[in-house]
Write a structure and sequence with these properties.
11 helices; binds flavin mononucleotide; 369 residues; TIM Barrel
Amino acid sequence: MSSSSKLFSPFTLGALTLPNRIAMAPMTRCRATNPAIAPTPMMVEYYGLRADAGLIVSEGIPVSRQARGYAFTPGLYSAEQVAGWQAVTQEVHKQGGRIFAQLWHCGRISHGSLRDDNAPPVGPSTLPANGKSLALDRATGQPALTQCEAPRALTTAEVKGVIGEFVQAAQNAIAAGFDGVEIHGANGYLLDQFRCPYLNDRRDEYGGSLENRCRLHLDIAREVAAAVGPERVGIRLSPLGQANDMKPDPEPMTTYAYLAGELQKIGLIYLHLYDQSMSWVHDPASELLKMLRATFTHALMLCGGFDAAKSEAALAAGSGDLIAIGKPFISNPDLVSRLRQGVEIAPWDSKTFYLGGHSGYLDYPTFSV
Ligand SMILES: Cc1cc2nc3c(=O)[nH]c(=O)nc-3n(C[C@H](O)[C@H](O)[C@H](O)COP(=O)(O)O)c2cc1C
């Protein structure tokens, strides 16, 4: 570690002092295999081992049963789930860490088998996704990658209900001891689906104009911030992203300038940018990145293919304040000390990302062991 390292310098995020600029990126691991779909003791250990991160952002947490898109993803909408997360946050705090809950609605990236009544997915419109969801095989109860089912379009009243679910989940997150929440506005899930002009054919206040297509992001941000305090709320966006059968936004400079400007007015504490192409977020000359940095003046978190050198370069260039790292955290529980000491990063096994119980979850050793 060079003496000019910014990566290992502290950062003030609202009421929190992060000891370094490394965030653990949100990563779904599908380990909640119990009937309550609540966090398990295995998850308590997994998150506790990673408490050296400046900030942990939890795996995507469905805000309701309807919000689910993958098997075994622990929610935050029942008392058992809140109790399960409480054990996780207590362990992270005991180990000296900080953790935000990522609040998630999958929208059309989903399958009826994830719900007892087989309720189909919902979305801004009835347009189906050409993509897969980790559904449940009804006969065996086992997870199986399955084509997403066609959604039904949410009514306007139901959209208001979804906003209420985010507010309730945020309140539950605080009750469970999380330090804050990150609204999942990225990656082709419900909020991103509403933003997308190719998917959103609505005629109500949530469709048509740019302002209307971004209204779901902003209503949720505003109401969640009012409920738990804007200094405890971040949001994730994936400009130009194509995951989950999305097409890049036709006017990204206009769309994201509007969103970033309005999110700034609401006072959210951070904007988390995930560049799925791992390109523009590494380029300090990127017009998109420069515009977002200038428009959103609270903390900017960057994600997508960062290692220690790329993180230092982005921080030194002033492109962002925090760097979120994903896959290396899966296979290196002690990632922060490895990066600090320049120790080799162990490879991850993508076969056990979403399946595997203990295997591929708690059996990656720390360097010092
Ligand atoms: C196993 C796995 C699960 C993920 N789950 C989520 C998720 O729940 N929410 C989310 O916003 N991104 C999710 N992502 C994306 C990561 O947060 C991150 O953006 C991505 O891995 C790129 O960062 P990296 O190059 O450092 O791995 C996931 C990625 C992986 C590999």
